[in-house]
Amino acid sequence: MKLYATDKNESTKSRRLRWAFNFWPCIWCTGGKVEFIAGDFKELHVSLKLNTRTRNRVGTVYGGSIYSSVDPYFMLMFMEILGKNYVVWDKAASVKFVKPIVNKVKCRFLISDELVEDVKHHIAMRGEYTFDLPLHYEDEHGKVYAVFTKTIYTADKEFYKKKLAAKK
Question: Widest CA span of the chain, in angstroms?
């Protein structure tokens, strides 16, 4: 179910991946739910709500659930978009908890064609590229509850192999 207006649609592959994510214990246990994955893997929607898996001692969503429910997706999206000739890693992240979450919130992961071309250009020039991506949880009225910055590392696979070999 799309949480944001978009002209993109799911493909059979992205629909199956969404289903697999939502039943994979590492993701299911966060309390987050993947609601939509575009067929080109450039857009993904996640929701999070207060429930028995996410409730902390003070009756709001646990901070660990808030962060972990958004953790892997930019990396996984870039892995699909760039393909097998590239290496993609989560390198760092930051989170700012703005307001306690007690109702359902949503988050939109969006990767533009321009960003993909920029990443490929930097990798072609240097062999590797590290960049930051912003993200936030908001409610249905647009009120922000948590703000994230994800740092993604990308590299040409051959460059990365040589880099690792040089370290040994």
Answer: 52
